[in-house]
Inverse folding.
């Protein structure tokens, strides 16, 4: 089996410090959490930006600030910026984080319901964002909430917009989307193009069970307070305690943990793209 890539969804758009004081919100808090989680074994960091009132934002100056803070102490980690819709529905604004040239960016290739919103990704927007990934060489983490989103990703490959190998992240367990069961995870892993890599992001209570299944199946794992605020025993989670739990489980079943450079190899990331984000800061 490949070494295990641990991605941390550090902040997200929904959790606040009132819900869980461990949610990192400011650029320096986010960078400190990266520090702790990288030391524990995480290699990829999925980043959302918040404004001064903790509200989600697509303000690129805040993304830059976060990247600068992260790279100052952890130059080797892989930064993945979000293109999610809760921070603003303007399609051009949602593309801007990719123009900052992070090594990776999130890319949802379809629409679905999430708690309180329609997560809208129109065919037009998917093509435009896909072209931005293609043009910039930023590697998409293709977030899959439903099977049809895999078909859309394959469609972009067929059109020459995205290049294989693809990397998928199965987001399971959100209200209104596919339930977070091992059966669903197994079904999705069998539905992606040969040669793809995959990771699972279980939402809420499904986070640790699905991560455990992925470790056994040879996939990769995303954890973090964006996806789940509690440990399985009901205590408040932090990004660090979630990463530490995954590392313990992986060790128990004999799965080694990937360093950032090993993660780059597994994900076919180009080494020369490692620090492009710093050029724009
Ligand atoms: Zn996210």
């Amino acid at each position: 089996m490949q070494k295990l890539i641990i991605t941390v969804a550090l902040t997200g758009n929904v959790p606040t410090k009132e819900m869980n004081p461990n949610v990192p919100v400011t650029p320096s808090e986010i960078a400190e959490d990266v520090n702790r989680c990288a030391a524990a074994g995480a290699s990829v960091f999925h980043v959302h930006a918040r404004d001064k009132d903790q509200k989600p934002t697509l303000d690129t100056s805040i993304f830059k600030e976060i990247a600068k803070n992260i790279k100052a102490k952890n130059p080797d980690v892989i930064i993945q910026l979000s293109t999610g819709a809760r921070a603003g529905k303007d399609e051009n604004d949602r593309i801007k984080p990719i123009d900052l040239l992070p090594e990776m960016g999130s890319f949802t290739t379809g629409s679905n319901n999430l708690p309180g919103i329609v997560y809208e990704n129109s065919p037009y927007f998917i093509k435009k964002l896909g072209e931005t990934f293609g043009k910039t060489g930023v590697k998409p983490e293709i977030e899959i909430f439903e099977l049809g989103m895999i078909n859309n990703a394959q469609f972009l490959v067929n059109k020459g917009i995205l290049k294989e190998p693809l990397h998928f992240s199965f987001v399971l367990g959100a209200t209104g989307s596919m339930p977070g069961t091992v059966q669903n995870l197994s079904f999705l892993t069998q539905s992606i193009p040969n040669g793809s890599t995959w990771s699972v992001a279980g939402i809420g209570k499904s986070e640790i069970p699905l991560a455990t299944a992925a470790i056994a199946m040879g996939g990769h794992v995303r954890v973090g307070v964006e996806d789940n605020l509690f440990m399985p025993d009901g205590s408040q989670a932090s990004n660090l305690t979630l990463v530490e739990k995954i590392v313990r489980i992986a060790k128990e079943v004999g799965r080694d943990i990937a360093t950032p450079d090993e993660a780059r190899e597994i994900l076919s990331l180009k080494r020369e793209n490692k620090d492009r984000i710093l050029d724009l800061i």
Summary: The pocket of zinc ion is lined by residues 9, 12, 46, 48, 82, 84, 106, 226 (CB under 6 Å). The two ends are 38 Å apart (CA to CA). The mean pLDDT is 96. The chain has one domain: 6-279.
